[in-house]
Design a protein that fits this description.
The structure is a single chain. By secondary structure, the chain is an alpha/beta fold. The protein is 37% helix and 23% strand. The chain is built from eleven helices and 14 strands. It has a ten-stranded mixed beta sheet, sandwiched between helices. Strand 3 and strand 4 form a beta hairpin. The longest helix is centred in the first third of the chain and has 17 residues. It starts with a strand and ends with a strand.
Amino acid sequence: MIGIKLYGTQTSNFEYLKYTILSNAANADIDVDIQEEQSIEAFIRENIESVPAVRIGSELHVLTPGTRIREFSLMIVDRLFQHAGFTGEKQIVIPENYNKTSSNALEYALEIAKSMKAGVKIVHFQNEQPLPDPSKFTVGFLDHMVLKGRLDETLAEISSDKTTKLLVLGKSFLNDKSSQAFGSLLAKLVNNIHAPLLMVPSKFRFNGIRRIMYAVDEDSITHENNKFVHDLASMFNAEVHVVHVEKLSQKGKDTGSDWFEHNHFIQNEVKFTEEILYGQSVFDELEKYTNTHKIDIVILSRTKRNLMENLFHKSVTKRMVMKSQLPTIILAD
């Protein structure tokens, strides 16, 4: 609980400031305790030279002459988020075109951001007309930027920033693309980005993350990949299903023991299971597993051969993204 004290009378500026604080705190699941102080005696006693003013912890912030109330309110919200642990060192980036599916992706990104204590950067491309009025969106940990350029190149550049922890893309952001163009653009994104990419399907609404399927092979089990999955599972107290797919001809052979022995994903505080699946189709086996185990989100590890090589050269990742009804994260190298 973060204590906040508001100084001032119930003017339009005071009410705007109060509403901005409360709405941003509610959207980010930050518990705040607001006390209002309206007595002149208190203003004198606490050296409040002008109002409205705000005290967060030991910090006192005063609306000075010439400063607009919106700018002041945004500054207060920024300070509130810093007190709540949103340091700006983590960013979730989402291109937005404001259709229904894209809004679902934004909702999903916001829910992860709350648990990750990350900011959300909404990217508008300049060729999208008309751009919506940013004032309709919550301020605070949301940031808007307008960019030019190709989607894959621009997102690749953004993802190289160390603060970018996740890229989120709604499927319908590319709804003007043909199936072939969609697959080509997806491949370019995955091959060039430097941060995990989350694809959110149409009509999917966030309902928590309880079970994660983490599809891997031996070469893709890296410290960075495992840390991402581990941290996501910890944030939502989720169970991780570590899954590896082998050809049906390998069933009954000793193909998995060495791989499991080298699996350094083991984390005592996260519940996880390991399983080898056998079948001729990687996509079909993964899809069946998600259905039978009620998986909430799929994470595909990225490696230069084996699983991800099969996924891309045989269009399995494209099928996972386009046909699966679950959000899918593709991890970067």
